[in-house]
Design goal:
This protein folds into two domains: about 35 residues; about 280 residues, Purple Acid Phosphatase, chain A, domain 2. Helix content is about 25%, strand content about 20%. It has seven helices and twelve strands. The strands form two sheets. Strands 3-4-5-6-8-7-9 form a seven-stranded mixed sheet, with no helix packed on it. Strands 2-1-10-11-12 form a five-stranded mixed sheet, covered by helices on one side. α7 links the parallel β5 and β6. α6 packs parallel to α7. The N and C termini lie far apart (about 70 Å).
């Protein structure tokens, strides 16, 4: 049976109306799958946020302590703690010499605890040389303050996974734990730890920097551990000890530029105690900041990382960037 001319016109008008409704609905509710396909390869989410610095809290008897508030020249642990809070981190890494002058428990309780101690529940520390300057030379007050989270008291090194990353906390106070050279207990433990790791990205941290342009300079005792990390595919090393901020390009054990497999190192001895000058700028040192207190904020993604230095006492210095994992 055929259709009349009016029926055909009516059907055409109905199809037009339905088409306009579909277009309007699409504009209001675009397909989420199509949007995801257009998204950048790297997520814009912050991932795992960590904050790190070393050389942090003055002793209460320090002339710059000022009831814990510090002065413009020293004892800025309260100001850097405020920066930690502003970053809203998932993890805080105190990089050693966390409490001066000898890591005394009473000073930890009176100076470190009211400032950086606010983050103890998410902190994974390492010990510095000042923690080992106590009378017993075994950092006992440091281990008493942090408890089991600081690792075995006889070792002070440990590892853990968080998010998509593997973290390795090493002890650079080599003379107190049986050495750091090839074949030492710590080096053998590190080699085994790396062999068992199943994370794509690795971050290691300790107190004495393998490379530094500061007054303490390069720390050769960490060379064999650096080599072990290099062989194990690690990405990043964070250290303190020199009271300054410095960023190095990725390097191998000989201090040579190696963007394919090298370790990128940050020196962040800017946690509050005091600041040092630079001495000799080392090869592959990309950024140096003197006279700046602050912390390093990092956003760790499944396949890379972003960094940003947060300064406490100036708006004139900035350092930020990003890099993929190996």
């Amino acid at each position: 049976m055929g259709f009349s001319r009016l029926s055909v016109i009516g059907l055409f008008l109905a199809l037009v109306a339905v088409t306009f409704l579909l277009i309007a609905n699409f504009n209001q509710n675009p397909d989420p799958v199509s949007l995801a396909n257009d998204a950048p390869a790297q997520s814009s989410s912050p991932g795992l946020v960590i904050v790190a610095a070393g050389d942090i809290a003055c002793a209460p008897e320090d002339p710059g302590f000022n009831n814990g508030l510090g002065t413009a020249e020293r004892c800025q642990m309260a100001a850097t703690a405020n920066l930690v809070a502003s970053a809203n981190p998932d993890l805080v890494l105190p990089l050693g010499d966390n409490q001066y002058e000898r890591g005394e428990l009473a000073n930890y309780q009176d100076s470190y605890q009211p400032t950086w101690g606010k983050f103890d529940i998410i902190s994974k520390p390492v010990a510095g040389n000042h923690e080992y300057y106590g009378l017993d030379k075994n950092a006992s007050d440091y281990f008493d303050y942090f408890g089991p989270v600081a690792g075995d008291r006889q070792k002070g090194y440990y590892s853990y996974d968080q998010g998509d990353w593997h973290f390795i906390a090493l002890n650079s106070n080599c003379e107190y734990i049986g050495g750091c050279e090839m074949g030492s207990a710590q080096q053998q433990w590190l080699k085994q730890d790396l062999a068992q790791n199943n994370k794509a990205c690795i971050l290691a941290y300790w107190h004495h920097p393998r490379y530094s342009s500061g007054v303490h300079g390069n720390q050769p005792q960490m060379g064999d551990l650096w080599q072990t990390l290099y062989d194990g595919g690690a990405e990043l090393v964070l250290s303190g000890h020199d009271h300054l901020y410095e960023r190095f390009a990725p390097q191998n054990t000989q201090g040579e530029l190696d963007r394919e497999k090298g370790l990128r190192q940050f020196v962040i001895g800017t946690g509050g105690k005091s600041l040092y000058p630079f001495k000799t700028v080392r090869p592959n040192s990309e950024v140096q900041a003197m006279g700046v207190y602050g912390v390093l904020k990092m956003e760790l993604q499944p396949d890379g990382y972003r960094w940003q230095f947060l300064a406490a006492n100036t708006d004139e210095f900035q350092d930020q960037g990003e890099s993929p994992c190996h």
